[in-house]
Amino acid sequence: MDWVTGLRPGVDRSYNACLVIVDRFSKTPIFLPYHKDDTAMDTALLICNRQLFGTKLSFSTAYHPQNDGLAEGMIQTLEDMVSRVCAYGLELKYCDGFTHDWGSLLPALELAYKTSINTSTNQNPAILEKGWNPKLAQDSLRKELVEINPTAASFKGILDKAIDHAVRCMEDSFAYAKDKLDKSHATPYFKVGDFVLVSTTKFNNIKGCEKIKDSFAGLFSY
Q1: For 76-85, 89-98, 183-192, which range has the lowest pLDDT when averaged over its residues?
Q2: Which chain regions cross the lipid bilayer (predicted)?
Q3: How far is the C-alpha of 76 from the C-alpha of 147, rounded, in Å?
Q4: How far apart are CA 177 and CA 191, in angstroms?
Q5: H or E, element range at 167
Q6: Are both 17 and 62 inside the same structural domain?
Q7: Can you point out the beta strands (E) in 170-215?
Q8: Residue 81: which region, alpha, beta or left (left: phi > 0; alpha: psi -120 to 50)?
Q9: End-to-end CA distance of the chain
């Protein structure tokens, strides 16, 4: 688990941070609105039972993870989702062009991620966590709803197959990631006339909240 800080205070209870919890096996995320100035006691209540559940607490800094990078990767994904919805969403926007109530988006973003295929497991996190996909809004528009709850007799078999498949996919994913990191990264080559996107990481003159600004600006001609 890790925290996202530096968010603009939301309308609901003035949340200005988000606690991100990720299940290592199923990749299921939990996004919880939080307060940056919460006390150590508030945080301790969240992790006091970590030994009982076999959770290893490993501290890290931004972009320099001292663990497996799972939480950091999820945080980057969450920030990207929030920035895109706040910048281009249909909700009411304020003078700086962003929605303030980002906290209200967390349940929908969490559901969207849970029902999407994860590249490591090649399964939906919801399938590995619960054994079935939750019904989405578009399901109510179908003339005939697909039965998503398997019978009790075949449920265990279906779940076991999904877990076994996910384990194999995770092993392949770890092997691929290791092979990729072992190789040196080739320097990108651009020629005159190519169109490029420019990272806004170092830009300090863009209006609005730093955390939900666009990640890239462009296109620009090289």
Answers
A1: 89-98
A2: none
A3: 34
A4: 30
A5: helix 152-182
A6: yes
A7: 195-199
A8: alpha
A9: 40
Kindly give the interhelix angle for 70-88 and 106-114, rounded to the nearest 10 degrees. Answer: 120
Task: Output b/e per residue, 150-159; b: 16+ Cβ within 10 A.
Answer: eeeeeeeeeb
Q: What number of other Cβ atoms are within 10 A of residue 167's Cβ? A: 13
Average pLDDT on 180-199 reads 78
Q: Are residues 79 and 163 in the same domain?
A: no
Number of domains in the chain: 2
Handedness of CA 185, 215, 67, 173 (dihedral sign): negative
Asked whether residue 169 is assigned to any structural domain, the reply reads yes
**16 shares its domain with 88:** yes
Report the C-alpha gap between 32 and 107 in whole angstroms.
9
Q: Which residue has the higher pLDDT, 147 or 139?
A: 139
Beta strands in 27-165 (DSSP E): 29-34
Say if residue 103 is in the same domain as residue 129.
no
Strands 29-34 and 216-221: unpaired
pLDDT at residue 30 in the model: 81
Q: How far apart are CA 159 and CA 163, in angstroms?
A: 6
